[in-house]
């Protein structure tokens, strides 16, 4: 018992000060900018890469991996408009074209979230649909960037190379950021690394259980969905699969949590449309913070708003359970690796400890 209490207090302390080991970061190279011809200067030295997308031009920068390999970074590339205001709980809208050169040298804002790991701190923005790209090769002057599918043809490569997309999702679907996973080690290999943000928690999975707000505005179970499963060649899943009890929230329970939250904001209404319109007028920071009030003490897993099975509608992403999808054979047959991470059971242990306190 003393060990359990000690670990709980240690984790509480780590919410105030960083306790994780500080992983080394890749070196940022200081590249001269005085003379530039396309991607190289007259001395054939590579300078900051400038790449033309169909909707605008971005300028990245050079970095070094932990093994000393040069690579190119493009950070904070928007793939969608802000999800706030009238776009809250709507499918993402592709980013409008911009003029001039957009600096892609730092990650965009995290999606608005309440972090349990950070002692329930609320941070981020509804303008958060950004991605980061890291490549070991100098890109050609043009490449095709497909926003509707996140990625179709990103670079024209001169050597065989693999594309790795990282979707960061905590098991609670409430917190996280694509920028948490950096290129320091992965770019030692011939890999194009892509990390991205998506909506989380109440802003990503709020649902009334009907066509007015079916849910699933954040990350999805791509291998099961008919809409995107053909865009992936293989999948690595760490810390769980779609079959976990917290992998999906039942439509009934998700609607229950959504109605409880709406009631707290005075938006409870039998008419789903009116409920949705009322909730859209609420401050997004208050919505994120109010999720805490829905927890019954400290459940395990701490799941409120997460992916769900949608009612049939034209834009439906997930209409069958993982069990049914596998049973009927509609799942994409792709190579699939599953694994676990360090300290997987800490949250379960904390839950048991807290629930035993009288």
Automatic annotation (TrEMBL):
Alphabetical keyword list: Glycoprotein, Signal
Domain of life according to the entry: Eukaryota
Pfam family, one: COesterase
Span of the signal peptide: 1-19
Boundaries of every Carboxylesterase type B domain copy: 48-219
Name of protein: Esterase FE4
Annotated organism of origin: Orchesella cincta
